[in-house]
Sequence to fold (476 residues):
Amino acid sequence: MEKEFDVIVIGAGPGGYVAAIRAAQLGKSVACIEKWKNPAGELKLGGTCLNVGCIPSKALLASSEAFETASRHLRDHGILVSNIKINIAQMHARKDTIVNKMTKGIEFLFRKNKITWLKGHGSFTGKTNTSYRLNIAGEDSSEFVSARDVIIATGSKARHLPFLKVDNQIIVDNEGALTFNSVPKKLAVIGAGVIGLELGSLWRRLGADVTVLEAAPSFLSTADQRVAKEAWKQFAQQGLKIHLGVQIDKVQVIDNTVTILYSYKNVHAQKLEADRLIVSIGRVPNTDNLGLEAIGLAVNNHGFIDVDHCCRTKLPGIYAIGDIVRGPMLAHKAEDEGVLVAEIIDGQKPHIDYNCIPWVIYTEPEIAWVGKTESQLKAEGRQIKSGEFPFMANGRALAMNHSNGFIKMIADVNTDELLGVHIVAANASDLISEAVVAMEFRASSEDIARICHPHPSLSEVMREAALAVDGRALNM
Ligand code: FAD
Ligand code: NAI
Fold:
């Protein structure tokens, strides 16, 4: 007999698996359809984030940071080590263990919350007055299920250049870039966005000579330009070469060498040769063979599913969340939308403030921000004031040998409400949370300036930046 559920979720990435857990917590009978297979052919939950995104990239970034610390920075502490080597196979084994632990953890959470994992490719086959019908095409089985509410959380996939085949050996996207079995001598990267900078930094730390080719004329245009300028300076000092305003003309692979021909500053036929090429030019929503037409739903001109501020599509009972809808392609945004939709299905009235979703780039120094940049606010005609405080004037940062960077805080000139906080520094990913909380509560810079912060800690820079908004930083 055909199985019926209250809620069916398609996709078990951070959007889908969190939606499934929250719906189950609220007493719904829930199934989640997921087809992901790892290179060993095992079915896995967790989506892009756990399998080929956030988690494996951060595991490798941590390994490469440890290697760079050992090779370059331990001597500052008087610790002398020699003959430092990296065992790449061991580094990947560590990463795979972490990924496995996390994906198994979601299997455990599914069992704990009595969520049925339907293994295979899900697609809509039709609808009745009260429910939607879906097919799950498994390895050697096919079944039909139905539910009154369906949450589409099918995520995204790497965007490729139309003329360039990604083989994930020599020319790779994020998947291949996380599995190189040796350190490339010369690594080319197309796209100086989040993946280009994180994975470019990762392989540079391990010894690759990395050149990043970026089409845009300015660097990190979504970040505050003061932060982008500081990051540019730091990356250049580290040896990461970034060319802006580049147009890729042709890429060819001969005898395991990639040759990239590109135009730069109106000079054509510039040539870059490398052992490997990472293509990281953004991601596109994934709605492949989802059968949307069977229920009368279509994607928009950019491939996204249109939704309102509550992730509702135009069809009652059909919701879409995460990378397949508008907004930043971030795991925590997908998770929040998963909770939001499950609670809406339950009849609650939750809310997401998209202005308070933090961004983090896990380079060294890390870059993190929440709210708006100075140029966005000026373009909106807002009257603003801002303060900055450098980490080199913070005792803990000096003690940790991480004194690069600063925090910049922007507030409304009249009300003092916080409008944006921008960090370029070690541990920015953790430091930004204080600013997120403050902005969610619509705090003023004065609120942060008056709160006691532990000493010595990097968080004191947040307080000093808040004081600097009013021109009264204490330690500068
Ligand atoms: P996904 O995680 O893409 O999951 C979608 C799932 O749906 C997949 O498992 C897929 O197999 C499944 N699926 C699709 N279609 C079907 C179907 N028809 N039937 C059954 N199953 C289907 N974000 C951060 O916030 N922080 C980071 O540090 C970060 N690092 C990243 C690093 C890299 C290298 C990459 C590529 C991304 C990173 N991201 C990061 C982005 C983050 O991974 C995504 O924003 C997030 O995974 C989106 O979640 P999602 O649930 O929408 O989709
Ligand atoms: P991105 O959008 O961050 O950057 C893509 C870059 O490629 C842009 O700078 C763009 O101008 C450039 N570009 C586009 N076409 C080009 C071309 N033809 N030639 C040269 N440059 C070109 O996309 P990216 O880095 O691929 O990452 C995808 C998404 O994954 C991110 O936007 C982010 O949402 C998510 N992600 C998040 C992370 C985090 O939160 N720390 C880490 C990694 C990915």
Q: What stands out?
A: Residues 83 and 161 are 41 Å apart (CA to CA). The first helix runs from residue 14 to 25. The pocket of flavin-adenine dinucleotide (ligand 1) is lined by residues 10-16, 33-36, 47-49, 53-54, 57, 121-123, 153-156, 174, 195, 286, 290, 322-323, 329-332, 334, 362 (CB under 6 Å). The first strand starts at residue 3 and ends at 10.
